[in-house]
Design brief:
Layout: H1 2-42, H2 47-61, H3 64-76, H4 82-103, H5 111-122, H6 127-153, H7 160-170, H8 173-187, H9 190-201, H10 208-222, H11 224-229, H12 235-255, H13 259-268, H14 276-292, H15 296-306, H16 328-359, H17 368-391, H18 396-432, H19 439-465, H20 468-497, H21 501-505, H22 507-525, H23 529-534
Helix pairs in contact: 1-2, 1-3, 1-6, 2-4, 3-4, 3-12, 4-9, 4-12, 4-14, 4-15, 5-6, 6-9, 8-9, 8-10, 9-10, 9-14, 10-12, 10-13, 10-14, 12-15, 16-17, 16-18, 16-19, 17-18, 18-22, 19-20, 19-22, 20-22
Length: 548
Amino acid sequence: MESTIVMINLFGAVALLLFGLAQVKDGVSRAFGAKLRTGLASGTRSGARSFVSGFLATIALQSSTATALMVSSFVERELVRPRMAQIVLLGANVGTAVTAWIVATGIEWLSPLVILVGIVLYRSGSSSRQGGGTALIGIGLMLLSLHLLSSATEPMRQSPALAAFIGLLDNAWPVALAFSAGIAFISSSSLAAVVLILSLASTGILSAGLIVVLVLGANLGGAIPPVIASLSGSAASRRVTIGNLIVRAIGCLLMLPIAGYAADALEMLPLAPAKLPVDIHLCFNVLLAALAWPFAPLLSRLMQKLVSSDVQPDDAPRYLDEHELATPVVALASATREVLGVGDLIERMLLRASASFERNDLSKLGEIPSLERRVDRLQQEVKVYLSKLGRAGLSEEDGRRSIVIIDYAINLEHIGDIIEKGLLSQITKKVSLGLKFSDDGYAELTKLFHLTIDNLRIAQTIFVTRDFNLAKQLMEVKVEVRHMEKQSSERHLERLRDGRTDSLQTSSLHLDMLRDLKRINAHIVSVAHPILDESGLLIESRLRNPAE
């Protein structure tokens, strides 16, 4: 009976730890999701920035799995280069290790205060504050779980059964590594596995060599969930997660034969025995990052050979299942997923146009016409699919959602038309004729390009979450875009009056690109209209009432 209570307490403490991790991830995603994704996508232009981006993202999300899936999706959309993605995940691995080291510093006594502050923030009403409050509650629960784990493992010190099991593992390190990897895999968190090892080590029943092996297994098992989650994705995303698994597996294979020597070396250092698991975890990941970093380009090329490219996709929709029409909620969710894919295609078109404009590289534009044809086909399929759903009869709420989905799809299709018929020809003219904008004009257009891409990413988030604060923020950005377009036009005309030759040569091109980017932003912002309209904050005309 006593052993049963011990196991219940142990599993309950682990469950609380996993729940706390999930709360941190959800809270940070709600509070900083769009900024975090944008920062991770844009912070990978060099190896050092890629490493830091992965490190910070994992510290914020408390999950290297979430970072791995996020960066693999960016590789799929060609926002991040594959070799930089591998370096991002090296940073993510170190971020997980640093998190484990921090939570093991004996600050669990702060858990009530952290939970209290989190609840106060959560009840404040603001969406971003609620997200921050949820994250703090999750951190408080994680710290509380450490205290519960310590209490739950204390009775195990005298357990003959546990001593026999530990002895078995100590005499079969490959089995111990596989056992620890299984725990990390089942919990989908290497951090949870390391914290559990930390609690067992504090009882003094684990040898230093076994601790090294168990930590290696936790690292190996933590790399498996992203691989499984990306199996249904593209070849590009699978290459990233499988590459990370290979790096960790090689590190474990190299360390396993010398685990005993490593343990002896660590015991000679002035390290606290109670914190040995997190110290080993941190040392292993820092050493692995230092050794694997130079081989990131080689690993990317190897993964291209090991994971064959996807068959070139056709224009057919992926998620519109006719059988789901009998269940409107499911059908609307599928249509939403399909339209998000259309938004991703538009983002790829904008990224190619922006890169071609900045680098004078026409090869970046070659894919835009085919992407535009896919956008046209998919938005048409979504409209036909939802029209069939309409005939089956919908609730008022589902009917409104159906209209929102169709409207967003149509606006995305309009954006595709503007890119193909406007920006494509304008950038082609700039590059083929060797035209050069003035430094000020080039900077203004580049800034507007980047802002447009960021706005589209925010719109994609709003389309799914229907977040009121994000919708309001995006509507305010529309005013900023209008001011940017007006100011840029006025500055351009001033340069013309000054007789600037570069401005004279690119005059019509500059104004046409400003107009098209402004039109694209207007279509992007439309995703916020239904949300603000429901709140009564949207008016039909911008004209001022003379009586006011």
